[in-house]
Write a structure and sequence with these properties.
alpha+beta; Neutral Protease, domain 2; 4-stranded mixed β-sheet; binds zinc ion
């Protein structure tokens, strides 16, 4: 009799405390290659669905957690991967970044396969309003206003939404951003234009002050300089049509299968105590990219995931120099801001770099901060408070920024 009770007790304790282990999609340590690996589903409230202490993974608009036994095996793998990477990210913020406030953060609902747009007054916009695919976003907490009929009232905490994947013909996407050849030429173009303009200015000065020294009429030189400039522009223009050489026929991004996207979205929520999640800007996207890059520990983030995404990676060591185009909202997803912040980490070291970049959010605003004004100033202010030797380190930062073209 006693043994039976003991066995029963042991069994129930076992089911209470054993952490389920499931297949997840992860990147191989230090590489962009992805593999399927068994991982523990920590902090779960039960043992048969993705409902945890900190994250609940649901399908579309549902409020029920996805079951481990859902017949859709791909959905279970997806939910397990997202659940694993988000909990991992939470540990990073708690342990590595020592961000204690994470303890007070309300539980986050994570929605997979949701196509609805976000509506700040209604949670989900109407089903037929332009469905969304191939991306992910974090949404701020909110509630429907009082005038909304009772049966449609809703309130929600911070959520992360992953859109379903959809293969889109690349040619239908329009401008996907410059291809690698254009980027290389653009990097070359700026110094060259500077050179041409300088040469031309010098020539103008000569014409003005020392006309007798000049042995060629001004207009000839003008044509020469303008010619080089036009040629450069033409090559640059032509290279844009070479896109087909660099891109696949189809574009697709199953965001829930890209580990760094989970890190990126969670970073938005952590940073949202200062950086509102109202819209994307080069500054708030760059900040979220930075912490995604810190957690991924590879030079390239968001790299291809075989069978799930052929989206272009972002390179934390991107060498491009600053131009005012980098401030444009439509370039919010470029890797320029990430590369500026990564340089900060390189010169201050991991520890101080991460502290300074994180602290910089106190001096930033999603609505108004630009890279050249807001972000650089915020980094310097943050260094004043968090750097090991602020005076020395600020000088180092000035130098780093000027190398980046500021
Ligand atoms: Zn983002």
């Amino acid at each position: 009799m006693n043994t039976i009770i003991l066995i029963c007790l042991a069994f129930s304790f076992n089911t209470l405390f054993a952490t389920p282990v499931l297949d997840t999609l992860v990147r191989r340590e230090g590489s962009v290659r992805t593999i399927i690996k068994k991982n523990e589903m920590i902090h779960l409230l039960g043992n048969d669905s993705f409902d945890g202490k900190y994250f609940k993974i649901v399908l579309k608009k549902s409020n029920e957690a996805i079951s481990f036994h859902d017949p859709d095996k791909n959905l279970v793998l997806k939910a397990a991967s997202v659940y694993y990477h988000l909990n991992k990210s939470r540990e990073f913020w708690m342990k590595d970044m020592q961000f204690a406030k994470i303890q007070e953060m309300p539980k986050i609902t994570v929605r997979l396969e949701l196509t609805n747009q976000f509506d700040e007054f209604g949670h989900f916009a109407n089903d037929n309003r332009a469905p969304q695919f191939n991306n992910a976003l974090s949404i701020p907490s909110g509630q429907t206003p009082d005038w909304v009929p009772e049966d449609r009232r809703d309130s929600w905490n911070n959520e992360i939404w992953f859109r379903p994947v959809k293969k889109i013909l690349t040619k239908d996407l329009g401008n996907l951003g410059p291809n690698p050849m254009t980027v290389a030429l653009q990097a070359l173009q700026n110094p060259l234009i500077d050179y041409i303009q300088n040469q031309f200015n010098v020539r103008l000065m000569e014409e003005f002050f020392y006309p007798s020294y000049v042995n060629r009429p001004l207009h000839e030189d003008l044509i020469r300089y303008a010619g080089t400039y036009a040629l450069m522009k033409l090559i640059l223009h032509g290279s844009k049509y070479a896109d087909r050489l660099f891109l696949d026929k189809y574009y697709y991004l199953d965001a829930a299968f890209v580990p760094e996207i989970a890190y990126h979205e969670f970073a938005h929520i952590v940073l949202s105590d200062r950086l509102e999640m109202s819209h994307s800007t080069p500054v708030n996207e760059g900040m979220a990219d930075y912490f995604a890059a810190v957690q991924s520990r590879t030079r390239k983030i968001y790299a291809r995931v075989k069978g799930h995404s052929n989206s272009r990676y972002k390179d934390r060591d991107e060498k491009k120099k600053y131009t005012h185009w980098d401030e444009a909202t439509r370039l919010a997803t470029s890797d320029f801001t990430l590369s500026v912040l990564w340089d900060v980490r390189e010169v201050l070291g991991e520890n101080y770099g991460d502290k300074v970049v994180f602290h910089a959010r106190h001096f930033l605003e999603t609505k108004s901060s630009t890279i050249s004004e807001g972000l650089l100033r915020a980094i310097l202010y943050a260094c004043e408070e968090k750097c090991e030797f602020p005076r020395r380190d600020k000088l180092i930062l000035y130098e780093t920024f000027s190398k980046k073209g500021f």
